Amino acid sequence: MLFAMAQKTIFELDLIKLAKWHRRSTIAAITILISFVVVWIGTAIVLVYGMNTTSIDIGFWIFYILVMLVSAALVFPTHRAMGYGLFNSLLWAILAFLIPFLVLLSIASTAGLILKLSGAKVGMFGVSRANLDHIRPHHCRQCGYSREGLELFQECPECNRVPQVI
Ligand SMILES: [Zn+2]
C-alpha cells in the first residue's frame, strides 16, 4: 500500500540498524545546535564590530543549505530503519529539506522512543556500541548475553532475566 504509515511492526525492525541511524541523527542534531549557537555569536560579533555583512549572508546561506542537506540525508535512512515505506521516507526527506533541523530532531526522538520501547539503553548520543548487544536478535535485553540455543522463556544464565513477551 502506497500510503501505509508503517510497513513493519516494532517486532520486525532491525534494531541494530535503527540504533546506528538514530545515533547518527542524534549526533548531527547536537552538532547543528552547537553550530547555530556559534553562528549566532559570530554574527553578533561581526555586527558589533561593523564588518562587511555580505560575507555574513553568504556564510549563513552556506550553513543553512548544509543543514538542509544533512537533515534530508539522515531523515531518509532513519525513516527506512523505523519501518516506513520508500514513498513515506522520501516524503519525510523532502519535509526535512523544507524544515531542516526540526524534522531531524523529531525523527531522532521518535527513533529513540522506539529503541527505548524495545528495551535499549538510550543515552544522550543514542545507544552506545557497548549496549548494541542488548538489542541484537537472540541476545539478552539486560546484559547482552547470546541466548542462542536457550529455550524461549528460559532465564538468562548471566543475569537471570526471564525474557518478556512484550
Ligand atoms: Zn542476561
Q: Can you put this structure into words, describing what you see?
A:
This protein is mostly helical and 166 residues long. It has a domain at 14-121. 55% of the residues lie in helices and 0% in strands. It has four helices and no strands. Helix 1 (15-48) packs antiparallel against helix 2 (53-81), helix 2 packs antiparallel against helix 3 and helix 2 runs parallel beside helix 4 (102-117). The radius of gyration is 20 Å and the shape is elongated. It starts with 14 loop residues before the first helix and ends in a 49-residue tail after the last helix. Residues 140, 142-143, 145, 156, 158-159, 161 line the site of zinc ion.
Key phrases:
mainly alpha; elongated; 0% strand; 166 residues; binds zinc ion
Question: What is the rounded Rg?
Answer: 20 Å
Q: Given the C-alpha coordinates, what overall shape results?
A: elongated
What is the total tally of β strands? 0
Query: Biggest sheet: strands, sense, closure?
Result: none
Strand content: under 5%
What is the SS-derived class?
mainly alpha
End-to-end separation in angstroms reads 27 Å
Number of helices: 4
Question: If you average the pLDDT, what whole number results?
Answer: 87
Helical content, roughly? 55-70%
Sequence stretches where pLDDT stays below 50 over 5 or more residues:
none
Question: Which ligands, by name, code or SMILES, are bound?
Answer: zinc ion
H and E order: HHHH
